[in-house]
Amino acid sequence: MPTFPFSEADPIQFHGPLPKRSDVVIIGGGVIGVTTAIYLAEKGVAVTLVEKGRIAAEQSSRNWGWIRKQGRDADELPIVIEACQLWEQLAAECGEDIGLSQTGVTYLANSEKDMVDFEAFMKSAAPHAIDTHLLGAAETAKLIPGMARRFHGAMRTPSDMRAEPWLAVPALARLAIRKGVMIVENCAARALDISAGKVSGVITESGRIEASTVLVAGGAWSSLLLRKHGISIPQLSVRSTVAATEAMPDVHAGAAVDEKVAFRRRQDGGYTLAPGGGSALYIGPDAFRHALKYLPALINKPFGIGYLPVAPKGFPDGWATARNWDADRQSPFERMRVLNPAPSQKGLQSLKHEFEQLFPTLGPVRLKTTWAGMIDAMPDVVPIVDRAQSIDGLIVATGMSGHGFGIGPGIGRVVADLIQGNAAGHDLTRFRLARFSDGSPIKLGPAL
Question: Are 252 and 263 a contacting pair, CB within 8 Å?
């Protein structure tokens, strides 16, 4: 059994071999890449997925494990509603226990302003008839008994779910293999092979794969690969610190968050804890390059961002990370197989303290595992899901902005149809690649 968090020291589970050609090559073994591969394979499309490190080793296993409709951007909401249905289907089909459970998501209100923000989401969600509703102070206290703080109220969506990400995505990868997908770990895509403005293949460290269609779903690494081919996207990566507690009494079966701490029940009887608001941005060349596009987000602080002056060596936006390289030589993707940032020790102590203060009857909280992940963020807090107009045959699905795990199967299904030339089933205008270059104003998604 691999360790968690995953590392490049873990044994390779998906060996390939690398084929000479494939209908579609997917770059990135996270939830988006894996689910896209599943839905393509179901239609008889020959799919090869290459992953520089290990399946789900980065943000797809390091997230909070929430599968939520609540708090979503209005344009994401139809896709995540579909994704919730697909999660249930995939969990049944993969035949493995991934911890999928419909236990609800609750946002706790620290002030009347929070309640006003919740009411705004309720209005945008009303056309979709989801079961989100508001609770008063007394109802909130009854929902999560034992909390030492009294909240103004809450917003709750009982049908929202949770799962164990580090179990779920590898299980889906095994399902993809059974459907005929070729998955090759420890195989970095160094460059796209482009002929006359069209994709003709992918050059990997293990050789070239001929293909007419390529999906870039590389999370925090996507912009680095795309930039090599003249496509600039204002994607940055922010570090989020997370912890898992030892098993403890059940104070709440679902997921909940206030401004200080987020928590959700785990399959192993503990809780996953994370900051209610507060990630860290490493300042690098791309942070300066895209600073103007991030001004609205920085002013509104949807990420609750703190700043660190220098990214660790080899990170996607590190000062010394190569922005260009020859495809026949080692690339930045091979130099860092798994992006494994160190968690904030101060943040971990704060999480532990806040959870103990919120539930004092639990006594001292013991942390079982701690980790951090790099969230691929966009200036407007919604992803890019689009064809690249400048390179025929290239599709981009990245910048999930911390929403990728829950919405993953929905995006995967959408991208699979996009690749096949079918109707996406949803309006993707908001997620177009050109919105950052065609003069469109930055429209922020919700910071909930």
Answer: yes
Neighbouring residues of 283: CB distance < 8 A, sequence distance ≥ 6: 307, 308, 309, 310, 311
| Cis check: omega of the bond before 17, within 30 degrees of 0 | yes
CA separation for the pair 196, 189 (Å, rounded): 20
| CA dihedral of 84, 86, 88, 94, whole degrees rounded to 10 | -140
Q: Are strands 305-308 and 279-282 parallel, antiparallel or unpaired?
A: parallel
Q: Can you tell me the distance from the alpha carbon of 102 to that of 100, in angstroms, rounded to the nearest whole number?
A: 7
Over residues 283-294, mean pLDDT: 91
Mean pLDDT of 400-408: 95
Sheet holding 189-195, edge to edge: 189-195, 198-204, 207-210
- Rounded to whole angstroms, the Cα distance separating 161 from 265 reads 11
Instruction: Taking residues 411-424, report their average pLDDT.
Output: 98
Select from 52, 33, 363, 379 the least CA-distant residue to 217.
Answer: 33
Q: Supply the mean pLDDT for the chain.
A: 94
Residue 364: other Cβ atoms inside 10 A:
6
To 5 degrees, how large is the angle CA 110–CA 239–CA 31? 100
- pLDDT, one tens digit per residue, over 121-176 is 999 899 999 999 999 999 999 999 999 999 999 999 999 999 999 999 999 999 99
